[in-house]
Amino acid sequence: MAGYQQKNDLQVADALAAFLEEQALPGTGVDPAAFWQGFSDLVTETVQENRDLLAKREDLQAQIDAWHLEQRGQPHDHEAYCAFLREIGYLVEEGEDFEIDTANVDPEIASVPGPQLVVPITNARYALNAANARWGSLYDGFYGTDAMGSAPPKGGYDQGRGARVVARARVFLDEAFPITRTSHADAKRYYVHKGALLVDDQFLAQPEKFVGYTGHPKAPDTVMLRNNGLHVELVFDRTHAIGSRDQAGLADVRMESAVSAIMDCEDSVACVDAEDKVVAYANWLGLMKGDLQETFEKGGKPVTRALNPDRELIAPDGTKLKLKGCALMLVRNVGHLMTNPAILDKDGNEIFEGVMDALVTTLIAMHDLQREGGNSLTGSVYVVKPKMHGPDEVAFADRIFTRVEQILGLPQYTVKLGIMDEERRTSVNLKECIRAAKSRVAFINTGFLDRTGDEIHTSMEAGPFSRKDFIKRKAWIGAYENQNVDIGLECGLSGKAQIGKGMWAMPDMMAAMLEQKIEHPKSGANCAWVPSPTAATLHSLHYHKVDVFAVQEKLRAGGRRAYVDTVLDIPLATYQKWTDAQKTREVENNAQGILGYVVRWVDQGVGCSKVPDMNDVGLMEDRATCRISAQHIANWLHHGVVDAQQVMGVMRKMAAVVDEQNAGDPLYQPMAPGFDGIAFQAACDLVFKGRVQPSGYTEPVLHARRLELKAAL
């Protein structure tokens, strides 16, 4: 077949075959012939089980739809509903208590709570920024955002604002690293004497929080401190614009920020063919080999970005100390649903993309395993697996990675698994999902948006859902978030794995984030997602204020707070007397988010965008946010809250709004006034055909429309 090479029983697109044989395989010690044989066998061995698992999803959904239709017009019987779900095998019996036995886990996963970035792997610059976000300037975070309550000024440096930044940073230092009989605000000199840090001749109240320095002990260039496992670096430079005005010469406070980062091959990218997959895999290869670079123009000059080196210090006892310069990197694979034309099986069918990702991303990570001081210092590969429905699908993923390890000659359980708790069948069976991969689990994470999208799709026939803001206020969401932590602790994840929380989706609203996102570490989560390196730096403040492991210990002693019955409370609208204006506003808000995201996804291949909402607040949109918005409109259409003519009118109105918002983008193709472009059609498909999409996912529509556009170019 033109454009493909025969590799055993596989037909592999030329670009992908060349990448694997010329770039990915060399240096791993894996024989190419054995690799292709193993790849071919893996596809053959897994294809039918994958299909059967997807068929089970559809069968369960059909039974749930039928049950709701039979109950139509009657009050919802929660007990009967739960009994029915158990009867059909949607709810499985919870087994005896156990604890995970995952081994060789890096400290960034097991023992250092902190922020976590998620970034599209197809954008090398963003990927490098995320990896380098291990360290960030607190001064920049305060000065350049609204974190102190007001937006940064335009124009040159504002000395008044700078002074407030310094004062705010000193307050943090006093809270995290108090000094006996003085304050960081009054400090004039920091120095090291006989292995101890002194500040104006006074000791730290907790001397053990001093971990190292650079430069001369009598006048260090930097001083490294540690609190709750996270490092803080004091940078001294009296020639610096800030340090020259500071009585101690303190030029910056650098925070250990994103201790881990997910390089995403899934929700935030638009990978529909071999060309796209090679871009993703090549960037992952550069990260795992440590040689990824990206040159771009900034301020009219070319800038080349690369991975930061590790930091070398002098420990208090005079020995050398090294701290990692980059975040620990995980890679998020595609789930079990999608196929990709990059590789065809012996029957000419596209293979499942998740199987492709499992083998290829693990192969690439072998380059890291074979170098000293790389990403993982314990010899592990971290794969986040999204959109799994229930224990059977987690067990399937576990077996896939066992076969991947066999093919590549790796010890079993080299690959550690991150389970996204974002589908309802996983939420209500979470303990058994963890059990199904108890020797691999290194991560569980709630995902409110995907979880809500699945909630709407699963209960589509139950009735109209509340408006989106009200869905968040229902009891089920609190139970979902609490149960995730409760079960994670019950299964022994504390000190062995991450219990994570979802994204702060408003990257320009850092003051609100500082106020609200502290609830994540307070909930017992030892990591939570942030949308930018700056957000990671600011969110790190929360982990200095909250001792997450102490919180986890208290929660574990108290037992479970949430149970499946509450998680299964469907967030339907109990009061449906919305005004026409309220209904229009809700549909407009959903439509704007869908259109603003989809137009760039389909036309430009951009998988994650900052899209202004109705109030011009920039929101991070990816396929999860698109899924909930599309399913919400589909639900209201299905139950007659709005009709097709009204929705189409809104879609056209909001397309014109999105066009205006993107007027400054030279690559942007307007949707209005013709409304006949492929991107607009894709957005309409998500809404008007949303009810029949598998699990309400957006991928099938987006992939098909993006491939249609690429074929027309």
From TrEMBL:
<comment type="subunit">
    <text>Monomer.</text>
</comment>
<feature type="binding site">
    <location>
        <position position="422"/>
    </location>
    <ligand>
        <name>Mg(2+)</name>
    </ligand>
</feature>
<feature type="domain" description="Malate synthase C-terminal">
    <location>
        <begin position="583"/>
        <end position="668"/>
    </location>
</feature>
<feature type="binding site">
    <location>
        <begin position="125"/>
        <end position="126"/>
    </location>
    <ligand>
        <name>acetyl-CoA</name>
    </ligand>
</feature>
<feature type="domain" description="Malate synthase G alpha-beta insertion">
    <location>
        <begin position="157"/>
        <end position="227"/>
    </location>
</feature>
<comment type="function">
    <text>Involved in the glycolate utilization. Catalyzes the condensation and subsequent hydrolysis of acetyl-coenzyme A (acetyl-CoA) and glyoxylate to form malate and CoA.</text>
</comment>
<feature type="binding site">
    <location>
        <position position="305"/>
    </location>
    <ligand>
        <name>acetyl-CoA</name>
    </ligand>
</feature>
<keyword id="KW-0816">Tricarboxylic acid cycle</keyword>
<dbReference type="GO" id="GO:0006099">
    <property type="term" value="P:tricarboxylic acid cycle"/>
</dbReference>
<dbReference type="GO" id="GO:0000287">
    <property type="term" value="F:magnesium ion binding"/>
</dbReference>
<comment type="similarity">
    <text>Belongs to the malate synthase family. GlcB subfamily.</text>
</comment>
<keyword id="KW-0460">Magnesium</keyword>
<keyword id="KW-0558">Oxidation</keyword>
<dbReference type="Pfam" id="PF20656">
    <property type="entry name" value="MS_N"/>
</dbReference>
<keyword id="KW-0175">Coiled coil</keyword>
<feature type="binding site">
    <location>
        <position position="268"/>
    </location>
    <ligand>
        <name>acetyl-CoA</name>
    </ligand>
</feature>
<dbReference type="InterPro" id="IPR011076">
    <property type="entry name" value="Malate_synth_sf"/>
</dbReference>
<feature type="binding site">
    <location>
        <position position="332"/>
    </location>
    <ligand>
        <name>glyoxylate</name>
    </ligand>
</feature>
<feature type="domain" description="Malate synthase TIM barrel">
    <location>
        <begin position="329"/>
        <end position="562"/>
    </location>
</feature>
<dbReference type="Pfam" id="PF01274">
    <property type="entry name" value="MS_TIM-barrel"/>
</dbReference>
<protein>
    <recommendedName>
        <fullName>Malate synthase G</fullName>
        <ecNumber>2.3.3.9</ecNumber>
    </recommendedName>
</protein>
<feature type="domain" description="Malate synthase N-terminal">
    <location>
        <begin position="17"/>
        <end position="71"/>
    </location>
</feature>
<feature type="coiled-coil region">
    <location>
        <begin position="43"/>
        <end position="70"/>
    </location>
</feature>
<dbReference type="InterPro" id="IPR044856">
    <property type="entry name" value="Malate_synth_C_sf"/>
</dbReference>
<keyword id="KW-0963">Cytoplasm</keyword>
<keyword id="KW-0329">Glyoxylate bypass</keyword>
<dbReference type="GO" id="GO:0006097">
    <property type="term" value="P:glyoxylate cycle"/>
</dbReference>
<feature type="modified residue" description="Cysteine sulfenic acid (-SOH)">
    <location>
        <position position="608"/>
    </location>
</feature>
<feature type="binding site">
    <location>
        <begin position="447"/>
        <end position="450"/>
    </location>
    <ligand>
        <name>glyoxylate</name>
    </ligand>
</feature>
<keyword id="KW-0479">Metal-binding</keyword>
<feature type="active site" description="Proton acceptor">
    <location>
        <position position="332"/>
    </location>
</feature>
<feature type="active site" description="Proton donor">
    <location>
        <position position="622"/>
    </location>
</feature>
<feature type="binding site">
    <location>
        <position position="118"/>
    </location>
    <ligand>
        <name>acetyl-CoA</name>
    </ligand>
</feature>
<dbReference type="GO" id="GO:0005829">
    <property type="term" value="C:cytosol"/>
</dbReference>
<feature type="binding site">
    <location>
        <position position="450"/>
    </location>
    <ligand>
        <name>Mg(2+)</name>
    </ligand>
</feature>
<keyword id="KW-0808">Transferase</keyword>
<feature type="binding site">
    <location>
        <position position="422"/>
    </location>
    <ligand>
        <name>glyoxylate</name>
    </ligand>
</feature>
<dbReference type="GO" id="GO:0004474">
    <property type="term" value="F:malate synthase activity"/>
</dbReference>
<dbReference type="InterPro" id="IPR048356">
    <property type="entry name" value="MS_N"/>
</dbReference>
<comment type="pathway">
    <text>Carbohydrate metabolism; glyoxylate cycle; (S)-malate from isocitrate: step 2/2.</text>
</comment>
<dbReference type="GO" id="GO:0009436">
    <property type="term" value="P:glyoxylate catabolic process"/>
</dbReference>
<dbReference type="InterPro" id="IPR006253">
    <property type="entry name" value="Malate_synthG"/>
</dbReference>
